[in-house]
Amino acid sequence: MDVPLRFGAELRRLREEAGMTLKQLAKVTTYSTGHLSKIERGVNPPTMNLAQCCDAYFNAGGRLRRLFSAEDQQAGSKPRPARRRVIVTGVGSLLAARIVDGGGAVHVGGQDLPPGALFQEQLHQMKLLGQSLAPAAMLPVLRSQASTVTALASRTTGSSRAGLLITASRFTEYIGWMAQESGDETAALHATAEAVELARAGGDTDLVDYALVRRALVTYYNGNATRTIALARQAQRSAAPPRVRGLAAQREAQGHALAGDEKACGRALDRARDLLAADVGPSAGPVLGTTQLKDPVSMVEGWCLYDLGRPGRAAEVLERECRRIAPHALNTRARYGLRHALALAASGEIERSCETARELLAFMSVVPSATVRTDVRRLDREWLRFRGNPAVRGLRPALANVLGTGR
Question: Within a domain: residue 355?
């Protein structure tokens, strides 16, 4: 195929400028080294998925995407379907040229698996990887994979298509979380809305309701108690399964704690426990919400106690629950461990607070998080009251490194 060299040449320039080998780029993009080599040499045509992934990874400002579009139009080929068009078109013209007829099973390890099952396992592994990698490093791979699953759904029919769309929605929902962890609230909300669209196309309403819970988390971190409570209550009024309503009740409790309403907070926590205990039915896709906590309601209760002005009790609950977090879950350990350190500082146990935070601040350099950084700023304010304490002075450089300040 006679393909213009401009895209391939620019991709090679960006790769070499970054000091990357083709093998390293293959790991990032999930394309083979041989295929990438042919793209760089102009033998094979590029794809929009590759352009989007590499644009994000190399921070190219959309240059590869523009080159792809220009070359695609020059070649006289039809535009690749956007994700929204894939969904709206349904089983119409896009599926006329499908490569999968009826969505047959994939034979792996002596058993037949539905096409979405392998991608669901991949998403599970990516979530584990996300516990120890920076969100910015995760996003290009997640976006590429979400596009791959959605494109495959456009070439599939029947229940397999629905399963693939639901799986794509879960990838996209996780992209929203990683975007929020990167500090891009707009991208987080956009990805959540896109995930809802994919889920609806697959016949899954669970994510439609869970999106309200995700939006409530954004408003909670923005300090908007009223909006957090309203969104959480809306999710609980839906016909969502117990797990989604239980997660919504947890978020409502956090909103009430932020507003200082201890009784309403307690009622919401009790409701969350009952709902999550009743969550025994199968899910339409990968599990929504965190899977790293043994008792998520108790952990949320500890944080609510801090917001309610009961730091001593909060520290007790958070310490107990933090001991139950798996060692590999660095992000979760940092998130709740630093909240424990904050509760200790607020209750005057400054040496214990510093001891608890020491290792966790080091984790933050490996797995940066915009939401956790919010709690680090609160910890900074608490420690300022004890600026003369040797333990606090010893952690000032680590704290400044996380916050990006020169203090």
Answer: yes
- What pTM, to 2 d.p., does this model score? 0.66
Q: Which of 145, 226, 227 is nearest to 178 (CA)?
A: 145
Do 264 and 255 meet the contact criterion of CB atoms below 8 Å apart? no
Instruction: State how far the Cα of 254 lies from the Cα of 302, in Å rounded to an integer.
Output: 10
- Measured in degrees and rounded to the nearest 5, phi and psi for residue 393 equal -60, -35
Are both 321 and 401 inside the same structural domain? yes
Domain that holds residue 27: 6-79
Residues 56 and 63: their CA atoms lie apart, in Å, by: 10
Work out how many domains the chain is built from and give that number.
4
* CA separation for the pair 153, 171 (Å, rounded): 14
Same domain, 312 and 390: yes
Same domain, 398 and 305: yes
DSSP state, 167? H
Q: Which DSSP letter does residue 113 get?
A: E
Per residue of the chain (407 residues), give pLDDT as tens.
343 458 888 999 999 999 999 988 887 776 778 888 888 888 888 887 688 778 878 888 878 888 887 877 666 544 443 343 333 333 222 222 333 344 444 443 444 445 566 787 788 888 888 888 888 889 998 998 888 888 888 887 777 788 888 889 989 989 998 998 888 888 988 998 898 888 888 888 888 888 899 899 889 988 999 999 999 999 998 788 898 999 999 999 999 999 999 999 999 999 999 999 887 655 555 677 777 888 999 999 999 999 999 999 999 999 999 999 888 888 889 899 999 999 999 998 999 999 999 888 887 877 788 888 888 888 888 898 888 899 999 998 888 888 874 33
Q: Whose CA is closest to 354, among 321, 306, 304, 398?
A: 398
Distance, CA of 370 to chain centre: 12
